[in-house]
Request: fold
Amino acid sequence: MNKITALAAVLVLCAAHASAYENSYAGYSVKDGQPYYKLEAKKVYAYTNISSKKVYQNEEDLKNTAVNIVNYYTAEDMEQILGEKFSTAYFDAEYEKLALLERSQLNPKTVPAPLLELDKYAEHDSNGNLTIQSKVLKEKLEKLTPLIKTGKIAGKKAITISYLYKQSDVLVKIDTSLVSANDRLYLLSTVNTDQDLYAPKKDEKSADADADIDETDTDEENEEAKTEPKSAASVKEEMEKALEVENVFVRDVPAETMQRFDKAHTDLLKGFKAFAPTSTPKAISFTDAAAGKSVQLPDDWFYGQLNLKYKDKGTFYLTLASSMKEMQEVAANTDYDSVYSVLAIPQADPEYQKKVTELYSSGARNVLQHWNHLLITASVDNITDAEIKELLSTPVANRLAVESFISEGLQRMKGFSNEYFALKDYKTNFDFTQEKALIGINADTDLLKDFAYNNKILLSCNQKAATAMLFIKKTDVETEKALEQQLNEWHF
Reply:
């Protein structure tokens, strides 16, 4: 009986570990329940609260998906943000100060509270730390009135900042709880949405449809008025109006909706556990179970992974990885005013296509100036496709057919070049047996004439799974040898 009990305990522990993310250097773990989507960088971990097993079993679950985000800051990070020494004792003192204000029914903003100035966190460059208060949302959140409260959530002292607002007929609630342990600060955020409360009712949709019919029944004069060019400023104003945020009061939201929102955030804190951090930084790495491969990424990279389990049809993995710094530079240098100026031009205008082409060129050039690497992998297991079986059953004949098809296509592509794209050179490798098939392509390309890239493509399959890998990098940029070695082995 003791042996059975011990075995059961081991299985429970293994199951708990399998559904939890742990960062020993950051000093925390969080139960993520095998999410269908997750993102990890050096100092941030984000995931959905819907399991990969449930995502295609109930569409209602998808509508109610919440995104949880964990950011952590060391004492050194916090000193840079606050301008003074930080420790868990410092956090506890701030917590008690805010709790006293709350008990006295005073506004927490009536006294200085550096910990609550979350815009400073977004401005702090902590090498791979992305917060809800990033530049994308900062201006929106500044227009809202947050609710600030203190209290223990799942036994943890938490200072919680909440936003409840409406945007584009969608109700959004953002809860960010500040928690401290071992002289580190953790931001635990949950983003909840409800798409039903403010969705147009059926009669409103019918009215809109009738209005559309009436609009089509207009004369030429009205049609010409419709196509009159708008100014870039007016288009920008329309876009911003569509994305406007509006404060929503708790009393105006159904109780069951608020309960769902609160439960999602409480579950995050319940699953969060802080412990003494280790001295070895955690390597950023992802695993593709279908391919049976793991890749350790460079220190400043991030990855996002989609993990879908189809009932009786296996699992599909899609992973994208790149440099966090490069992606932030692309976003920071995007010329949004140029986008608005092009959207302001009617498609019937003779200048439309020219402006779109110019926008594509300038926008792509901005991206390519700052972007040096991109890694994409995709895999699926539990293959039952008859064509895959056929591909492996006659390896010699199929290799010749596939090699001829791909080589002919690449040769044609090489002969086709313009100012946007040119295939300069390529090499191929084909390895077909009755156990597996491998297709390897190494190609050099030029984009917009000035940017040279090397592209590595690996496609492989066996009797049970298929996988694909694409790695793009600038030819004049150094890539870590360890990463390239791992990618060269991305095949069965």
Summary: The radius of gyration is 27 Å. The mean pLDDT is 83. Residues 395-415 form the longest helix (21 residues).
